[in-house]
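Tokenised fold entry reproduced for everyone:
>
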Amino acid sequence: MALLEGIDENPLPDSLEIILSGNSRKLGDLEKLANDIRALPNVQDVEYAQKWLSRFTGVYNLFQVTGLVLAAIFFIATLLIVANTIRLIMYTRRKEIEIMRIVGADEAFIKYPLYIESLLQGFFGGATGLLLLYISYAMTMSKVEQDAMFSFFEIKFIPATFLLGIVGCSMIIGWMGCLFSIRKFLKF
């Protein structure tokens, strides 16, 4: 203890570590809190990794924009694939459609079975894709242990409301593809 003999008081400054609650973890809230703490008496400095947080927020925003762009590309690609598939179905059934027109079927009698078929294909396609995704998730999570590597976050599967949204969107894509195909093919 010979090193500390000549020191009368603590040479290190006092410090206070603040942990934020879950509802105030935005960068703007953090900056406001840091400014409020700086304004307190006897506070000399406030450190909260501002540069790192702003870079992380920039990367996070980039991922969000990239995700939206990829979602739009996949939406358009899926819509075109569905539209072309329905167009091929109508092309193979063109003789049936002509016979129905000759017999006197109105446009609703011809269109609605195609709409129902496209909605069902969208539903089963979305549900099958999500089922395969869940099976992959379950197989992966059975092999991964929640040890120190994953201790700071919990890995969960997609929430049920989001799953219903995905299936609903796949049905809407099927219906829209059918709508575009019917407009071009049948020309009512």
Notes: The radius of gyration is 30 Å. Residues 50-92 form the longest helix (43 residues).
